[in-house]
Amino acid sequence: MKMLLVAYGSRGDVQPALALALxxxxxxxxxxxxxxxxxxxxxxxxxxxFVPAPDTEQILASELGKTWTSVKPNSPQELQAMxxxxxxxxxxxxxxxGDVVRDFDLVLSGFASMSxxxxxxxxxxxxxxxxxxxPYVPTALGQSSLLALTGGKFFANRWAGWLTLRLIWGLxxxxxxxxxxxxxxxxxxxxxxxxxxxxxxxxxxxxxHVSPRPDDWPDWVHMVGYWFHDAEVDGWAPPPALSAFLEAxxxxxxxxxxxxxxxxxxxxxxMVSEAAARTGQRAVVVSGWSGLRVEDVPPHVYLLxxxxxxxxxxxxxAVVHHGGAGTTGxxxxxxxxxxxxxxxxxxxYWGRRVAELGVGVKAVNRVDLTLDKLTRGIERLTTSDEMLxxxxxxxxxxxxxxxxxxxxxxxxxEARRLGVxx
Length: 422
What we know:
Low-confidence stretches: none
Number of helices: 17
Strand content: 5-15%
Largest sheet: 7 strands, parallel
CATH class of the largest domain: Alpha Beta
CATH architecture of the largest domain: 3-Layer(aba) Sandwich
Structural class: alpha/beta
Radius of gyration: 21 Å
Mean pLDDT: 88
CATH superfamily of the largest domain: Glycogen Phosphorylase B
Order of helices and strands: EHEHEHHHHEHEHHEEHEHEEHEHEHHHH
Helix content: 40-55%
Number of domains: 2
Strand order of the largest sheet: 3-2-1-4-5-6-7
């Protein structure tokens, strides 16, 4: 098959897509990736053709992006901020989708791009499969409901799932319908869009040990396991100073907020450093996309801008992070007790699941984080033997899975169902 894989978002969105693309390539398929132009060199380095889209790091570093990451997640304020991002950048991000999609046998889309891809796929008659890193398909099962109103299995959770889809459609409706009109398609109503999305096969790159597959999903919705990109460490060597720090004392914790930008990253660093000191912990702090610049780093902290999680996480005792799907999966894979500080979106769900599974402490939203709350979370994270035992057990089960192979098989199955010659 000749397929386009649209992997728009942060590195946490792109890296699992790259791992899956490598699996599809090994299975004999021709894969082109579309992602933010800031990932072009990395993706082309694996021999893939590439279609550039606007730089997601620059978008999150904009005033609109910083507003999105600084309001309470799953709140009206976040919906408004997300809507402004889509309205301002939507045409720029996805306006070229139609010209690209029509050249392929199959298009694979992620969460951020699925509605835009649906329009282009409809126009050119190209079958679509959604690749999801969060349990986005509505279900009554609270454990796998992105916005659960109650635990267990209850119809209200499924209703909340459809409401979530409806709200997100409302944020994207203006740019999508502009694109639809430009392609000669009638504008979508909410109902028509939701009917279209419900019929698209979906493959979730999540472990069922973390988010169980609900029995009320149709059989074209799959839960196959995480898509880990272990090749990211090939040829990579840690800075000598990092190796020396890791060897110089007690095993440290990891703290990092990935692609989440901040209006005052230095204040966040001071809070993290003080919380680590209060709990007697050494810490590796990764600044990510925050734009952090610190000259005076205390000796119990090692600061760097990026590091492969696949390399670092086996070498730390616990992880504190924003709750991105990729970071969460990698931490759980290596059996690390987890403290999630959600900034937006599905990060709230992962914070809830980590606590429900007993492999981490209760999440604290970034807007509510204080030094005392961070200190208490780190203290419990690093002193609970029961939490560590559960995290290690979950990690063993995740490491036994092969999500990439299962994902390739699911894509091939659904492509055949859609009439694509595999």
